[in-house]
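Write out the 3D structure for:
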Amino acid sequence: MESLRVKAINDLSTQSYQPELDGSPKITGYYGENVFNLKTARSFLSDEAYKSLSGSVKGGKRIDRSVANQIAAGLLQWSEGKGVTHYTHWFQPLTGSSAEKHDSFFTIKGDGTPIEQFDGDALIQQEPDASSFPSGGLRATFEARGYTAWDPSSPPFIMEIGSGKTLCIPTIFVSYTGETLDYKAPLLKSLESLNKAAVEVCNYFDKNVSRVNATLGWEQEYFVVDEGLYNGRPDLVMSGRTVFGHAPAKGQQLEDHYFGAIPERVYAFMRDFEEECYKLGIPLKTRHNEVAPSQFECAPIFEEVSLAVDHNTLLMDLMDRVAHRHKLRALMHEKPFAGINGNGKHNNWSMATDTGVNLLAPGKTPKTNLMFLTFFVNTIKAVHDYSEVLRASIASAGNDHRLGANEAPPAIISVFIGQYLTKVLEDIKQRVGNKFDEQDEAILKLDLHRSIPELLLDNTDRNRTSPFAFTGNKFEFRAVGSSANCANAMTSLNTIMAETLKKFKKDVDALVEKGDKKEIAIMHVIREYIVSSERILFEGDGYSEDWQKEAAKRGLPNVRTTPMALDALITDKAKKLFEGNNVLNHVELEARHEIELEKYIKKVQIEARIMGELCTSHILPPAIKYQNTLIENIRGLKEIGLKESAYINQKQILEKISEHISQISDQVSKMIEARKKANVIKNLRDRAIAYCDDIKEPYFDKIRYHVDKLELLIDDSEWLLPKYREILFLR
């Protein structure tokens, strides 16, 4: 019987995968056609209903339940016109993926008459079973009730799956007693907290600002591999990454893949999923080859954070589904392959006012540049004061394989701002002193204004080794993992920024009350924040050992593993931060800490189990078979009287194979025993640490070393698992 590896390679050689795609019209011709946005809503809603919906979308106002029926009726009419038969509340539980339960519009009246019906109650709220979703102890199995509640900030959309169509209502997910059970609800709360704090600071400079929205542009990295080769790798199927695999002769060392020509088969897949994205209003702008072989990236035009998060979650779902249609697989694990770059998801974050100003973009006047500096310095201060919270927000089993691996930011959180802004901050630090008066303030403001426009020319010198870098008009949070829900990082970033801005307002107002002019008070506080947070600024190579030593001298935390990073969620500091901004209470934080620990344990456990299974069923049998072949060959050469020199090389190979077999068998057995010991540990944190320190760290790389060496020694025809050279280069 031929192995899945051989079958997949043969299929690639003999079959053509050329799915036919319709000639696409202009993107603008079908962009958003499956989205019930305000433009579409205007055609299906009364003036009253449209005004209510518009006020909720643009201003965060609550929709009156009496109007909900009208909106639901408009949604039903629009959906039926597009062939939709079912609807669902689409939400993002703490599983890392989206969730949905489909209900039909079809119902039967009391007299037996069948009708299509969708009312306001069905639109606004549903009660899915909450017992099977992660809750961190907030929900017991017997307490099944949970609530999904409509989030009008994200428009309803139609999901097409094959010939079926479903109306999806974006919602939040909460427990019966009101605790949040998803990523979305805390995100919305953090956005509102940031809005309030940012508006108050903006009003120092512009009284017309009444709302501030955080914006996000994500960059999704992923690998594309042949489905047949994927199916031949149980580790990819089970865990999303290859736990074994020797590096191919050619990897990324020639740097010939980055920005290279997109392979035709992958190009067809990209066109297909992009079309699906455009129908759903996802504004994809960029696609290109990434650094590693078979690695790619797509990125949209930036959007308001809540919508951007939904769109990224949708995109990952679409990418997986469309890839399958092309007999491909899209891999979004942070480290699917050893020895080459992993996948990240850079989060480009900024803030924009309802007057059209990007608060992290240099302005055209001294006044607007002072506003830019205010928000710029406050961001640095926020990251400095709450770096451990940011580190916790991107902690996961997958990201642990990537962070610090000379291809992604280290576990040390630092900020890169570039040489020009470094000089600007240094000027403020030097020139703002106790005797700083109105004349000094006016001169400095003018000098800063003259120097800041140079940023637009020169601040594109991005430091690719920095986890948090300023890139001209936004900050790029580069440490976020590719499989992560952006909401986690964005909730933390919004919250720490809100907290810092509140403190800034309090500090400025205190100086004004003492008699300082407002602008002088602002400059004094900015200087104070520069001095107190400058240790987090770093312009050099974040991958170097020297930086790790320097960071330790500066007192910056270097938290390498997820179980330890997650501790930051349950500190008094974190509880005060999130509770004070009405984002998460201490019970919800403790629940999330528990959920993330459990998620970590399960993922490492799955990887450990698949390693053991592969060693037993895929690695050792062909190794032993080839070992026996060598034994018989050596014995035969001896029997016919040949000198030892005729078989000495075979004997050496045999000795190596025997040693690797012995080591694999021994280490796998020890790993299983370590797992048994870890599994009986009651305390969840201690169990997670045990899985990290007693299972992953001592055994994963050691077992992999011996398996990968065997891959080079065993007859290629006997090796069962598709090799890196096949997975990464055959498509």
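The longest strand covers residues 212-226.
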